[in-house]
Amino acid sequence: MAIEQEVLVVGGGLAGVTAAVSAARTGADVRLVSYKQPTLRNASGLIDVLGYTPDGEGPLVDPFAALDDLPEGHPYERVGADAVESGLALFDDLTDSTYEGNHTERNALIPTQGGRVKPTARYPASVAAGLASDERDALLVGFERLVGFDAPLSAARLNAAGAPFEARGATVEFPVALSADPKVTRFAHLLDRDEAGEERQEGSVRRALVERVVTHLDGEQRVGFPAVLGDDHPEEVRADLEADLGVDVFEVPMGPPSLPGLRLEDRLYDALDAEGVRIETGNPVVGYEAGADGDRVEAVAVDRSGATVPYAAEQFVLATGGLVGKGIDSDREGVEEPVFDCHVGHPPDRYDWFDDRAFGDHRFARFGVDPDRELRPRNGRGAVEFDNLRAAGAVLGNYDFAAEKSGSGVSLATGFHAGRLAGENT
Amino acid sequence: MSDADSPHDPGVPDDEIPDDEFEPVDVFPESELDLRSGADDCYKCSTCDTNCPVAEVDDEFPGPKFQGPEQWRLKRKDDREIDPSIMDCSNCMRCDNACPSDVPLSQMHNEARAEYVDEQMSKLSVEYWRNRVLANYRKGAWLGSKFPRLTNALANNGPLRKLGEKLFGLTAEREFPAFATQTFREWWAERGGAQVQSEEKRVAYFHGCYANYNTPEVAKAMVRTFEQFGYEIVVPEQGCSGTPMFANGMLDDARRDAATNISSFSELIDEGYDVICSCTSCSMALRQEYPELFTFEGTADVAAHTYEALEYLRIHEDLRGALAGAEVDGDGEDLAYHAPCHARNQGLARQAVELFRDLDGVAVEDVGDSCSGISGTYGWKAEKYEKSMAIGEEMFEEMDEAEGRTGMTECPTCAMQMEHGTGYDIRHPLEILEAALVES
Ligand SMILES: Cc1cc2nc3c(=O)[nH]c(=O)nc-3n(C[C@H](O)[C@H](O)[C@H](O)COP(=O)(O)OP(=O)(O)OC[C@H]3O[C@@H](n4cnc5c(N)ncnc54)[C@H](O)[C@@H]3O)c2cc1C
Ligand code: SF4
Ligand code: SF4
């Protein structure tokens, strides 16, 4: 006997979670199975929709205005602007007051750890006071021992890039004695708990931090910290720092592992629970069983530490991620989609995968499955592989999320679209 | 010590004691496992580090990325010794489950720990012998269960416990688990073994040490529930699963017991049996750690046919249907459920919650995805006790905030920790299943 449900989503990243919620909201009975942790906690927590065109034009002020000009096959072209808006609306609903940016269709400009400015569509509430379009001067504060954020350097770069405000940087010792190479979660949890044990630091950690920062303030109305201000209670941490410093406090998004990404992951998984989606993590899907005439998937095979168990469903969503999440696998022989062996178009010669020009067209980054407008992967001849299999997120091809800055937006739009269609077809 | 070399035990039927000492066959005796490609797969994202419960409370612990791929690289490059901090890893395996790039972290930890214990730890140290005794819990348990009342009284004698801490490094803070007055195997023999015969539905029960000596009610619940569904059960000769031995770097001890288990169970698999565990660390060992560490004939077969008890019923029976019509007597018991880390690794972290969601008479509340902190023998060590309780703090708080005053988990040592930290009674999902489905 197989484990049965109406819709089965494979993969638990942003695309899979969105697809699962979207399907559940049509009234379907949904299960999500995912192998390892998704890329959410590697990502900055910023929700990019489109920062640059595929030709490298940008940063774009209004990503929606650019959607119409995308080439055929691009995930946004496949699902259409409505699905992009609906995906974002679903995200806004799930994240509620913890995210901002939905008041406008225009991109916000966010200063990142290296002192660059990044166009994005939605951003955590904790970074809101740091927007580069804000004309108030800013003090950036880094911590000794926290690699990846050199506050004076970031400030200098922002100024050099012509930010409409004056930025200054300072580095302070975190008020709790730490090892040489502390984990970012360590900072966050010390601030969450607000105590470190008497021998390390007496009294409130937040308070002690404020005392170290306040001496550096020189009239600035806002202070930016690396994004480690709490894991479980970020609002509380920030509110305390703001109250004691008497200025606005914001977080500067950091590289992996990222606290805003982690918080988002927690929030989304709670939402899955609330929507009644069954979740199973820890085991990979390794194959499938097709129906008699081969045009439908009957079940997928889940590898439970050596034992293979069938999971049957009416509709399936493939959201296994790209090259990082291992939804697309490459070796010397070629590139493949390992679960359903869907067609992944690529040139036969490996050297053609990379463009010689440094900022040229990196085909490698665009590898992925090639879907119809219902997001059903197609074979090499353009015919749908299976009637009841749809794909969403980074497993899709024909776009380069890192260059376009479209990673999360594509996952939301295609996750929403694939999930809704899957749910409606049960 | 397995039952095979224990003095003749009148409680165990004769045919379960093989007459000659079993000879393990190691197919590739000298092979060093090659972990190089695993280390090369690491792209240094530090996801593993953000999942490590020990690193979270102990700033000095370098974390899984170091313990695994980095240490492996150092060793390969300039033959560096294993860093002693490997002994602070509790083998919870959360890092293993987290890595997006499939780096075999816990396998690397297990090998490094074994090498450290073999080559760098003094065999004359109290720590070595304390760990060895903890790892071989089953030997002590076998003896203790012969005189359960006396052992229980002695083990929980305050001054004696203090002495244990001083001389042996066992924390005096914990109460030793009580031995049952009748072991599961004694009960099984007394009832005359299996009550159901079947050609098609057959399972071989790996009860492990704890359900045999300490919580036979869990094992009995497994037997009655599976028999209700028409399964023929055998309870073959078996040793310890090896979990406490891996965690203490005692790979030779583990290998010895693994040989017994693999031989015993792979024969039954040939006769159509699947292997069922009621402890998630035992099933973890048989399914994942054995194939990672041993090459006995039959290892892969045993791994592919081993299941956790609830998982097995969910796959092979219409458990949802059976529970839909059932109810548990009582006035709506609230259970605070903790998913053991090793259950998480097998993809089982959510099944109890999912299963009992619609069962009348109980309400299950998940107390979050933190680690209980005891990790088998880890929390028993005097120098690890504080760390273990600090890790458990999050779970204690969540349990405290939960509606109910009863806990539930699949892992016997998590259960110990839950009880120790909150004073709640702790139950096993199999006991709830039995209460719902089996006529008493
Ligand atoms: C380092 C990094 C930084 C990024 N920064 C940004 C950013 O700043 N802004 C932005 O908008 N986007 C960013 N992104 C992109 C974005 O976070 C996601 O990568 C993108 O949305 C793709 O999500 P996904 O759900 O398709 O895939 P993933 O997040 O990769 O999730 C795939 C999931 O599927 C599971 N899986 C894979 N194979 C199987 C299988 N066989 N069986 C079961 N489960 C399986 C995986 O374990 C994983 O959990 C970044 C990505 C990376 C890697
Ligand atoms: S097994 Fe657990 S304690 Fe050990 S390094 Fe991994 S996460 Fe940390
Ligand atoms: S999670 Fe995996 S890839 Fe990332 S640092 Fe740890 S071992 Fe390396």
UniProtKB/TrEMBL annotation, chain A:
Protein's UniProt keywords contain Flavoprotein: yes
NCBIfam families given in the database record: glycerol3P_GlpB, PRK05329.1-5
Name the UniProt record assigns to this protein: Glycerol-3-phosphate dehydrogenase subunit GlpB
Protein species of origin: Halorientalis pallida
SUPFAM superfamilies: FAD/NAD(P)-binding domain
GO MF terms, alphabetically ordered: glycerol-3-phosphate dehydrogenase (quinone) activity
Keyword Flavoprotein: yes
Gene3D superfamilies recorded: FAD/NAD(P)-binding domain (3.50.50.60)
Pfam families from the UniProt entry: FAD_binding_2
EC number, as in UniProt: 1.1.5.3
UniProt keyword terms in alphabetical order: Flavoprotein, FMN, Oxidoreductase
Source species taxonomy: Archaea, Methanobacteriati, Methanobacteriota, Stenosarchaea group, Halobacteria
Residues covered by the FAD-dependent oxidoreductase 2 FAD-binding domain: 7-410
Automatic annotation (TrEMBL), chain B:
Any one of the GO BP annotations: anaerobic respiration
Keyword Calcium found: no
Biased composition regions of type Acidic residues, renumbered to the chain: 12-25
Gene Ontology cellular component list: glycerol-3-phosphate dehydrogenase (FAD) complex; membrane
Protein origin, superkingdom: Archaea
Domain 4Fe-4S ferredoxin-type stretches: 78-111
Classification via PANTHER family: ANAEROBIC GLYCEROL-3-PHOSPHATE DEHYDROGENASE SUBUNIT C, GLYCOLATE OXIDASE IRON-SULFUR SUBUNIT
Protein name as it appears in the record: Anaerobic glycerol-3-phosphate dehydrogenase subunit C
Species this chain originates from: Halorientalis pallida
Lineage start: Archaea, Methanobacteriati, Methanobacteriota, Stenosarchaea group, Halobacteria
